[in-house]
Amino acid sequence: MRRAPPAVAEKKRSFCQATRFLSGRHVSTTTLRDVALRAHFEMHAASRAVSGTFASPSRASHASRAPPPRARFAPRASAGAGDVAGALFSTDKRPIILFDGVCNLCNGGVNLALDLDPPGKLRFAALQSDAGRALLARAGRDPSDISSIVLVEEHGAYVKSDAVLRIATYLENPALPAAAALGMFFPEQLRDAVYDLVAANRYELLGMKDECRLGDDRFDDRFVADAPNRGE
Predict the structure, then answer these.
(1) Euclidean distance between CA atoms 117 and 63, whole angstroms
(2) What is the pLDDT of residue 225?
(3) N or C: which end of the chain has fewer CB within 10 A?
(4) By the 8 A CB rule, do 139 and 74 touch?
(5) Cα(175)–Cα(8) distance, rounded to whole angstroms?
(6) Rounded to two decimals, what is the model's pTM?
């Protein structure tokens, strides 16, 4: 027979002691019933607090919160990439979104992020730019890989659907962080499969630009195009 966890056993002992104490005194039936009900609810709460011994798995899953997107960081980033990343974040800690600079769909997403980020919490760099290529290497990706959006923070990087959900948490529209939290309940494999399908057909959906977008005259301080030289 499986033994009850210590927290539940303690509640049972307290209930038995209270019952013995009250049984030797002149108390009303209502008092005994109240003690029994209170002890029942306390034991139920204690059983749910322990790690699944008595708690219902279905209730535990509903009560759990969705984990945040997992940062994917380069385990063996090159020294040069590390130096560039350090320079990019040495005086400005704002995350950098790496996007396909010739993709109309991607550029539309950048415009939306600019509109929904009035405080300027995010920066942007084209995947094809020098800064973008250096940050890709730091994130453990091929510097020529433009297949996915990448969000690079000072101490981590996010790709594909994780990057999209993480970016949403920085934007000012209150519905977007809530949508990002909801999106994390879906399996990563499913989210990334949908992302890959859209990404693989992005040029067919909205076409391409003739030139790579490296900046925006309206947001000079929001775009990073050139990788800083070592020591800058």
Answers:
(1) 32
(2) 80
(3) N
(4) yes
(5) 41
(6) 0.66
